[in-house]
Each structure stands twice: as C-alpha cells, then as structure tokens.
Amino acid sequence: MVTDADLARALRVAGEVPDPELPVLTLAELGVLRGVEANADGTVVANLAPTYSGCPAVAEMRADVAWRLREAGFPGADVRTVLDPPWTTDWITEEGRRKLAAYGIAPPGPAPHRAGPVPLELSPRRPAVACPLCGSPDTEETARFAATACRALRRCRACLEPFEHLKEV
Amino acid sequence: MDDAHSAPAGPDSGSDARWAFGTGFTDPLHGVDTALAAGTDAAALVADCLALGDDALISAQRLAQWCTRAPELEVEMALANIGLDLIGQARLLYSRAGQADGTGRTEDDYAYARGPADFRNVRLTELPNGDYAFTIARLLVLSAWRLAVSERLTDAADPVLRAIATKGVGELTYHREFAAGWAVRLGDGTDVSHARMQRGFDDVLPYLGELFEPGATVGVDAHAVRDEVVDVLHRVVRAAGLTLGTPPATEPGAAGRAGRHTEHLAPLLHELQSVARALPGAVW
Questions:
Q1: Pairwise CB contact (< 8 Å): A53 & B171
Q2: Which end of chain A, N or C, is less packed with Cβ atoms under 10 Å?
Q3: What is the pTM of this model?
Q4: Cβ neighbours for B11, distance < 8 A, ≥ 6 positions apart
C-alpha cells in the first residue's frame, strides 16, 4: 500500500535527481518531473517530460530516476514518458534559473507562444540576455547552437567573456 | 517491456556506450498511452509517421556526414545538433508507427531492417551533401516544409502524433532560422559565395515539386504548405539578392513517398545499417 507520505517522499527523491547534462539543476528545478503516482500493485511511477526530442540526456534521466526510487525503497519503480503538455523552458523554476546563472549559464527568457504559422524572422528580435558573469546587458550571440542543442553561445561586450545561454523553446 | 538499462548499477556506472544501436535504448514512448482512438485510420497514421520519420532519419544521416567537414566549428555543432533533433523525432515517429500497424515493430526495425524501396522520404533528403551552400538551401527547404506541416499537425487526431509535432515546432523554428541566416549571409556575401548559394537553390529546385504533391504532406493541406514554404523561400532569396525559379511539377507516384528513390539512397542506407546488419541484435 502506497501512502500519501510515501508518494511525497518518492516525489522528493525523484525531484532531487540531478540533470545529467546540467548537474547544478535538479530534475524538479528543470521542470521535467510531472508528479509521482501509485500503481494498483503498490509500485510507484514517476512522470517525466522529455526536453528536446533528440536529447540523449532524457534516457539517462529516466534511468537515474528509476534507480534512485528503487534505492530509496520503492521496488519496481518505473518512469512514464509524458509528451503532453510538452516541456518548454517556461517549466524551469525560479530557483533553477538562479542556479543556472550562478553556474555561468544565462537562463532563458519567456518561451515564445505560437498560434498559427510561425513567421520567419530574418533578423530575429531576441530579448536582451544579460551576462551571467558581470551582469551587463551588452551581449551578442556568436553561435545559435553550442555544446548542446538547448544552448547558444554568446559573448559579453563589457567583460569580453564568452558564456552559454539556455535558449527559449 | 523496459530494457536492461531500466536498472543501471548506479549513477557512475558509465554510460558512454549507451547511445548507439543495440545498447538497449528504452522505447522513447515508454509508458505513453498508445491505444489508438476509435475510428483512427491506422494505415494512414502509419504512412504519416513513416513519411515524417524517414525524412528525419535520412536528413539526420546527411547532416551527420558534415562532422569534421563543416566550414566552421560552430557550423559543425549546429548541423550535428539539428540532426540530433531530427533523430529524436524519427525515434518517436517509428515507435508510433510500430504501435499503429499492430506489428509491434521497434524503432530499430524501421531504421535498420528496411531496404531503399521501403523508405518513404522525399528524394531531396537523400541527395549527397555537395557544397555547403547546397546543404543550406536544402536545410532551408526541408525545415520550412517540416515546420509548416508540424504546425498544422498540432491539432492532429492522433494524440501521439500531435504531441510529437507540437514538440517539434520550437526545434524546427531554430533549424529554419539557422538555414535562412546562412542563405542570406552567403547570397549577400562575396561574388563566389553568391554564385555558390545561387547554385545551391538552383540544384534544390527540381526536387521541390515532390514536397507539395497531394499525399506527400501527411494529411495536411498541400496547397497551404506550398504557399507558406514558397513564401519563406522567396523572402530569403530576396533578402539574399538571389533568385528562385518555378518548381517543376513532379509526376505523381514517381517520387520518394512512393518508394522511388535516386541512386544515392542505397549507399546511404548501406552505411547507416552496416553495423546492425553485420551484428544483428548485438548489445554492448
């Protein structure tokens, strides 16, 4: 029998699993954990929303969550993929954004909300991205895709340091 | 069923070998409610998933071939990342196709165990990479097409296809932006880059018609998709100081969606499938 207290503990255990790609963030802070439920057979299942379709870290997250839950006394714990509603960077918590900036990665601005055909912007207007190192708003994009699909590479014109920016998606 | 990796030895168990054929990928749709709604046309859903999945897989393979050959490190990263997004979409689409056709075929079955005539990708995806400008022109066309189609599939009847498309819209917007930015930069650059970018568009042109054939656009309005894509292309070539001719009509049933491919698909698949064919079912 899985009690509410068990579920709360399972949610905490799953939520504290670090993101394999950005270990400063937990999965709860990344916003990919969509709750924990009990199955009729007394096992628990964590609901996980994938970030990017092709992000190789997703399989790792799934394996880590199942393993941590089993270690924490939830035998047979499973992870379920949740595609709807899709994850966007808006799911990253305030604490997650603060930790990203402290780690040197500029957190994403508000995700674009789209309805109907997506307009082509040849000179995309992006919200100003402040340098996570010196705080200057005077920064420029140097590459749309950096070490991973989810990050862009930028440069600060004030302190001249390069930094990464988690793209709004 | 889940696989051997559902119970890893621990967070430090070493995972570098996990991201390849035969390493026991978990089903990307694991745990998703996969029941088909009453009244679903399963054959049509399978065809749509394979058309979109095959376009994505073959495009990703061509993009991966730019590794160590791209003109700049940043470009190499971008092309590889775009390919990775597309592989992610292909995996979900193949898994959905296997559920919908009732055979339970896996993503690996679709990617590694079919021959050229079974693939439903448009021929534009399989052409060799050629010049970087050709790759950019092709990426612009394909990402504009896929974005237009995906945006219209965000209200598809099948909830899984709908979710895959919704997820893809944000990714594809970045792909299209990347290609459009480079097309303008090259077209509006030196005489040499201008000429090469123009040739890139000229070489893509004969393969455009196929994208807008009725039946090629996975159940969404082919005319609306064509209008949107052609408008995007015209805006880009105008900003780049280039020209775009009129796409020739394609003989219905003569192209990739019907399994009729160029001579370039078989060698591509030979490379893509070589390990899976040499060591069927291997796990490491």
A1: yes
A2: N
A3: 0.89
A4: A64, A67
